[in-house]
């Protein structure tokens, strides 16, 4: 049992936890700034980027894929900005035009090339493949202290770990401008907290996190993790630091509960199958949000409370 | 391939293809039409939440049908399931954004990702059940009209037509609610009911479009055509007509293109056609297109250079700027060696006189001057009333007046 856990579950569980928590950390600022759907747009265009990079380079190397997804994210953001400025439409419509068109292009390229044979396909991009992150060397617990065995860990794990660290450092270093810009952009400009620069950096960090997590957990889970834990946390407290703490707790809980339910849940009912872990984690985070909406102590916001008094 | 594309466009590629092409065009028209109102209400991405929210209902309906009949691929049943869960998603977005402090963006993202996640879990349940026709589910993700039954195409086409007619009948109420809820209220229109009706029609379009464009891309059909329309007109009634036309064209051309070769996915082709029409508007619209804007900017720049060049001529200053020299030479105001020609001297004197008038006007009436566009560049007789111009002329200090 223990070796089964190490081989099959340790790496995916850790990847799920780390990506969930780093997405949720940035999600706090997206929810506060009412920009949650940036994460949606970016994770949809990761697929076209990856397909394009495969068609150009012919490899599925992680670096080429990440660069492709990054380029696609930048193209999308520029396109959104251009449509907003030139067409004078509001940002959600501009976003809807840009990311659907690029996603459509990605699906078309995928179907018309041979790429669909080599383990990138639409379903994979949406659902992720957490379950395939197997650690073949994890035969028993001593492997955790064996450098040779640790080197055989799936490469996604160190990747999301580095990105998680990067996100944490970003939030700590850019704390002041991030917070001021989230609540009062005009004031941020007046105290030289560089709201524009902060916005752009935040979006770039969101893109990096989404792309790193995307390959392992799929784009839908990335969107869920950007929004649900942070939104639930927002309903729990009025203060930012406790909100971030809550969001981390919710993200951790969703990842662990979702993974366990997907992997072992059917077994409890006597069925020897496993369900999609990424989908289950997203569902659990949604259930947490549902409870927060129903019972969260700060669900109504300050204005409604003032009106009630 | 070109041949069969042409056949599909001219409805000579067989009964089924014709039905599919017509059905897609109808779907595009109704999606563009209802989408216009949603975009005007600034809620375009609500349809993204609605479309992703169809997945769990769709898969659940598939499971139930498969358990009851052995084969889950019965389109009407699947669509009912999809509509039910889309309605739950829509209600979720409404409830979260109106009853909690969270914004609509967070509500959309949360509903979209959670319900889609649930759908993915249910898909793995289907795989575990090992029933017939599982691969049919995947076609709802990115759309597939290849192998669509004639009855399915008819169902889609007729439902889209019904939506189109309903939207057309209620267009005035919808517009009123989009632009002025207060006024709608005084006219005895319940804005909340009309809002709800718009969203239900959006939901219907989303659900019937699932099979054609797939659930990820149907949102594009409700956003891209209205935004395209925005490039060509400022009047809402025309916007809706243009959006419907663009949607119909995208559905028609996209479905025809996808039937021209096997393995071409319908949804992406329809969306890319819509995006192509959008790009044409973005580039070439006379009002807001990039080409029109660049031309206008170019013309404006030349006018500024011409005016500054003439003023320099009048003051006998040397001109170094290449563009200024080029513009002056083009008008025949200076010779190749930079010396002013007789018409150039006349134009320069006029320009200086006009500049004096403008600066006097700015001095006397600073507020009015600030409100004029391009003040100082347009001929003053065209920008200001004649009596104002003559009073300015009379007030000019004498040396400037005698220069005329």
TrEMBL record, chain A:
User: Which InterPro entries has this protein been placed in?
Assistant: ABC_BtuC-like, ABC_TroCD
Q: Where are the transmembrane segments?
A: 6-30, 37-56, 92-110, 160-183, 195-214, 249-269, 275-296
State the compartments where it is located. Answer: Cell membrane
Q: What is its main location?
A: membrane
How does the UniProt record describe the way this protein sits in the membrane? Answer: Multi-pass membrane protein
What Gene Ontology terms for biological process does this UniProt record contain?
Answer: response to zinc ion; transmembrane transport
The UniProt keyword set, sorted, is: Cell membrane, Membrane, Transmembrane, Transmembrane helix, Transport
Q: Name one Pfam family in it.
A: ABC-3
What GO cellular component entries does it have? ATP-binding cassette (ABC) transporter complex
Signal sequence region: none
Q: Which family does it belong to?
A: Belongs to the ABC-3 integral membrane protein family.
Q: What PANTHER family does this protein's entry cite?
A: ABC-TRANSPORTER METAL-BINDING PROTEIN, METAL TRANSPORT SYSTEM MEMBRANE PROTEIN CT_070-RELATED
What this protein is called in its record is Manganese/zinc/iron transport system permease protein
Q: Which organism is it from?
A: Aidingimonas halophila
From TrEMBL, chain B:
Which domain of life does the UniProt lineage start with? Bacteria
The record's section on Pfam families has: ABC-3
Please list every transmembrane segment annotated in the UniProt record, as residue ranges: 20-40, 49-68, 74-94, 106-129, 149-170, 239-258, 264-284
- Membrane-topology annotation of the record: Multi-pass membrane protein
> Where does it sit, as one GO cellular component term?
ATP-binding cassette (ABC) transporter complex
Q: Which SUPFAM superfamilies match?
A: ABC transporter involved in vitamin B12 uptake, BtuC (SSF81345)
What keywords sit in the KW lines? Cell membrane, Membrane, Transmembrane, Transmembrane helix, Transport
InterPro entries according to UniProt: ABC_BtuC-like, ABC_TroCD
Q: Where is this region: Disordered?
A: 378-404
Localization, UniProt: Cell membrane
Query: Where is it mostly found?
Result: membrane
Choose any GO biological process term that the UniProt entry carries and state it.
response to zinc ion
Q: Which residues form a coiled coil?
A: none
PANTHER family in UniProt? ABC-TRANSPORTER METAL-BINDING PROTEIN, METAL TRANSPORT SYSTEM MEMBRANE PROTEIN CT_069-RELATED
Protein family according to the UniProt entry: Belongs to the ABC-3 integral membrane protein family.
Q: What is this protein called?
A: Manganese/zinc/iron transport system permease protein
